[in-house]
Amino acid sequence: MKVLITGGAGFIGSHLTERLLNEGHSVIIIDNFHTGSRDNIRHLLHNDDLEIFRHDVTDPYRMEVDYIYNLACPASPIHYQRSPVKTVLTSVMGVINALKLATEVKARVFQASTSEVYGDPLVHPQKEDYSGNVNPIGPRSCYDEGKRIAETLMFDYHRENDVDIRIVRIFNTFGPRMRPDDGRVVSNFILQALRNESITIFGDGSQTRSFCYVDDMVEGMIRLMDQDEHTGPMNLGNPDERSIKEIAELIIEMTGSSSEIIYKPLPKDDPIRRKPDITLAKSHLGWEPQVKLEDGLPKAIEYFRPLAKMHAAPEKVPN
Ligand code: NAD
Ligand code: UDP
């Protein structure tokens, strides 16, 4: 199989690239290295089945491929809020260009959507048929609404042009190769703990998230892509819901850190609760996460240990 991965130099994309190369596929990466890095794929560069193009997905591209995984988009609030108009363009033009190529070369196309399409959800846990509670004009809207219109375009191309689509709604994912300056909760808390610096909880720490280890995520994405029955949208994530305070305490304990917890204001529109209902993925793909939070966190901690000497967690609180 010849597989195109947009955003293949990013956190999830690099794990997907590695897995597909290991399975014997040819992989082409398109990435503008906005939030991705060559370091994420350096260990794969010797592989003749890997090609990499520095290219922005908002500009059209053409190549013969069987599968397209469209992952290109900054994923962390600090990065996607830095240039919000560009974030919208990346989601919208990025998916249109992927869909145009899929139409032309009759490729199957996968869209990395997000639990953020549910916004600050009023239904808990979130099922795929919940339409969400998204603020269209807030600081997170460039990402949330960008991803929502990307789903719309996927289904419009599917209905109008019979494009073969797959959509996954990814819930918070963590693991090695997250960027140290991402400002995400797992990377921030680990860096702060390893540096014995104050752990910054936004709000009172009672808000919840459900964290999925990256290998489980990649397995679910490939399973959806490799079957013929279901288009999605399908939730993928770990339903093990934890409060942010609990995450802070767990990381302090696992790193043996002397960090104290401090509290900063909760960013605007920060969702209060989030947990995927994964009934669909379980029944259609036979998929559920295998890696417990307590087993995944040590792998992320080991990844960040050498980096913690060089990088502090970013100071900035997203809007
Ligand atoms: P990431 O920022 O590490 O990776 C995104 C990649 O896309 C980077 O390599 C970046 O350089 C590239 N990119 C960004 N804009 C581009 C553009 N205009 N043209 C070409 N390349 C561009 O993020 P990630 O965590 O690996 O996320 C991958 C995908 O999964 C994203 O679409 C994200 O929205 C989605 N997602 C991730 C999570 C998560 O918890 N990590 C949760 C929900 C959804
Ligand atoms: N968060 C925090 N301290 C940090 C970074 C994040 O308390 O240093 C909180 C953030 O406000 C949110 C949760 O942790 O409530 C998850 O944040 P992240 O940016 O990782 O993911 P998202 O909000 O996009 O789900």
Structure description:
With 319 residues, the chain is α/β, with parallel strands linked by helices. It contains nine helices and 13 strands. It has helices at residues 11-22, 77-82, 84-105, 141-161, 185-194, 214-225, 244-255, 279-285, 293-307, and strands spanning 2-6, 26-31, 50-54, 67-70, 108-114, 165-170, 173-174, 199-202, 208-210, 212-213, 234-236, 241-243, 261-264. The strands form four sheets. Strands 3-2-1-4-5-6-11 form a seven-stranded parallel beta sheet, sandwiched between helices. The chain has a two-stranded parallel sheet with strand order 7-10. Strands 8-13 form a two-stranded parallel ribbon. Helix 1 (11-22) links the parallel strand 1 and strand 2 (26-31). Helix 1 crosses helix 6 and helix 5 (185-194) runs parallel beside helix 7. The model has no long low-confidence stretch (mean pLDDT 96). Bound molecules: nicotinamide-adenine-dinucleotide and uridine-5'-diphosphate. Nicotinamide-adenine-dinucleotide (NAD) binds next to helix 1 and strand 5.
